[in-house]
C-alpha cells in the first residue's frame, strides 16, 4: 500500500476517534444531573453566646434546598438586636426557635409565656443554662405591698419555672439602670404578674433545681 494511502487511513482513524470522544463528552454533559438548587440562609459567623445578636454575628450560608432546616432565617431579614436563646456554634444555621419570641415559647405547653426578670446577683445568672429550672424569690422593703415600709422575709414568687435564656450585661454597665442580669423564664400568666409585682418592690434572687427533660 502506497505511503500516501496509509497516511490518509491513519488520519481518518484519528479524526474518527476524536469525533467519538467529542460525542461521548457531549452525551455525558447532557446526562449529568443539574447542580442542586441552593437556598441562602443566615448562620453563625463564629461561636456565639446567648444574648443580643450584634452586627457581624451572622453570615449568609448557601445550603441545598432539602438541607435547609425548618424555620431558617433567610436574608435580607436581619436578626441584629434580637435575643439568642442559647449558644450557637460557628456555621450553625439560625432558626426561629433559637430566638426569644413566639416561636420559642411555642415549644412549651399551652398557656406558657416568656417573662423577662432581672435578678440582683448577675454571677448567679452565669450558672444558668437554657432548660434549667429555678425558683424565684423576692426580698426587699415591702415588695408587692405599697404601704409596707419594713423589710419582709424573702418569699418564693414563682417556683419550678424553666429558663429560656439569660443575658449578663457587660462589666460596668447596667441595663435600664437596674443592674443585675436579665433572665427570660417560661411561666404562666399568673406567675408573670407576680414576678412583675415583685420586681417593682424588691430584689429578686434564685435557687436552682434539677434540670427537667423537655
UniProtKB/TrEMBL annotation:
CDD domains: SAF_CpaB_FlgA_like. Residues 39-100 form the SAF domain. InterPro entries: Pilus_assmbl_Flp-typ_CpaB (IPR017592), RcpC_dom (IPR031571), SAF (IPR013974). NCBIfam families: pilus_cpaB (TIGR03177). This is Flp pilus assembly protein CpaB. It comes from Spongiactinospora rosea. The lineage of its organism: Bacteria, Bacillati, Actinomycetota, Actinomycetes, Streptosporangiales.
